[in-house]
């Protein structure tokens, strides 16, 4: 019995970490599906979101709910602004040029926050205060429950949005074929902006949850979760929304199991090893569509 | 009639054979000309290289201040890295983010070699460079065989993953770091890195290494194998359909790139004197990629220039201290936007640029 409880406990911990990865991976995947670019600056949106929350709550003393909404709004606008300034002029440029620009944006965000907030980590108390819940002998912390619930709600809304609304079908159309979508009267530029806004808003939510679990602010805090979320997106099949969710969850569970049973030091190696294995067996990710290349 | 036909055919065949023989002879002559390394062009290049070395020596010994002297080796190492990555990204057309991983393997292999061997300085360093390069090449081969089946962004993320795997494996290893005075073997934890590496790397070594790597890559690119590699970049399906063994040549380019990354790693380690696995993370790979893309993919000259300027840029920007990395980011974005955005072509379309240039010519 004890072993089962232990395993379930670890599984829940894994889901907890995985849901944050999934939220970030969704942003990566959606942007990739539509703009066909790896948005390397996406991880840094998490960092910006965390700092924004810190500014709103600690420095401006706003109520928590207002601060959270403002943070999400701020990140969405930031996402649109970045797309307009840095990526939009490069629509027809080779993919590598866009990639380097994204890296430039990532450097810019990191160094701008380094200038404003300095390199020293800023401690930040958690804003989510929910009591732990006991089911049998398994105790689940309040933070975990909130994280799981928030992630679930976000994903449900996003799935509904993409499948049921007009804007959602416009997004799907643009990711299928930009030219054809334009011919059908879809405003491609606005759809791409909307995608960046949603992706960045999800990153902001992920940032708030991340900050509640690891309560310290650093300019480089977004880099590692960003990379791992990207791995999650590729694992699930990049450009695919359910794939990103699955990839994120799987990644969290694998990482947590590796940390618990093998060693913390090699957990990263195991995560990346699993990615390589999956890609070698199924080169387009778990749920990715196989593309046939034509000459 | 039939006989006539066959006769004609035979005649024709004979004449074709004769032509072939002639052609062969001509080709042999041409090859002999090209093969003798002592033609005028090569001699001029050799003289330029030697002159370049003396110029560098003069600058280092008499002109440069300490700050710039200390930059010579990093610039050279970055040139080697950029040129070798250009072979993979620019000429083979595969996005690799694994260069830091190979660099790391080279740096640690080289450092362990010099720490544990007691050979005279320069011989030891030379052997360390070779051993580090070969070790990186071996790993490049092992990694390349499975991974090069993937393409594009997937290959990028897998090579990035390998860099991280190499980093965390070195973190967990215990490394032999030479003997102490009592003759006991010192074992260091990988995460702590290695220190006390002799600083053998000087401007002579880096100059020789950089020149050799450039010559090898340039000659490779202009050779038959180089053409094959470029054809794979342009259309790998077409290349495959005319009988090119795509995976073999992909692996070849990848392994050569890995070898030089390893060499640069050894030199980097013997310049800094202490190395840690953290120093070779994906940010480093990205920095090397930036050299290649900014310099222009498939342009060796561009890689050299970009590596030099981008290594100098943070140092030149030092007076504005805190803002320098911010400036670096802005410069990076600005160059990309100016080079590739639509308003550049619009400017050219309006003949604004050509008008300006014409005016200059007229005034001259």
Please explain how this structure is put together:
The complex is a heterodimer of chains A (295) and B (364). With 295 residues, chain A is mainly α. Chain A has one domain (2-120, 141-281): Orthogonal Bundle (ABC transporter involved in vitamin B12 uptake, BtuC). Helices cover 74% and strands 3% of the residues of chain A. Chain A has helices at residues 2-35, 42-59, 64-87, 95-117, 142-164, 166-176, 178-183, 188-213, 223-236, 241-261, 264-281; strands at residues 122-123, 133-135, 138-140, 216-217. In chain A, strands 1-4 form a two-stranded antiparallel ribbon. A two-stranded antiparallel ribbon of chain A has the order 2-3. Chain A is globular. The model of chain A has no long low-confidence stretch (mean pLDDT 87). Chain B has 364 residues and is mostly helical. Chain B has three domains: 41-70; 72-300, no CATH class; 317-364, no CATH class. Chain B is built from 16 helices and two strands. In chain B, strands 1-2 form a two-stranded antiparallel sheet. In chain B, α4 (72-91) runs parallel beside α8 (203-221), α5 packs across α11 and α8 runs antiparallel to α11 (246-272). Chains A and B meet through α4, α9 and α11 of A and α7, α10, α12 and α14 of B.
Q: Roughly how many Å is the radius of gyration of chain B? A: 25 Å
Low-confidence stretches of chain B are: 360-364
Shape of chain A: globular
Q: What does the largest sheet of chain B look like?
A: 2 strands, antiparallel
- Overall mean confidence score, pLDDT of chain A: 87
Beginning-to-end CA distance, first to last residue of chain B: 75 Å
Find the structural class of chain B using helix and strand composition. mainly alpha
Pfam families (chain B): BPD_transp_2
Keywords (chain B): Cell membrane, Membrane, Transmembrane, Transmembrane helix
Main location (chain B): membrane
Transmembrane segments (chain B): 38-59, 71-93, 100-119, 125-147, 154-170, 203-221, 251-268, 288-313, 325-343
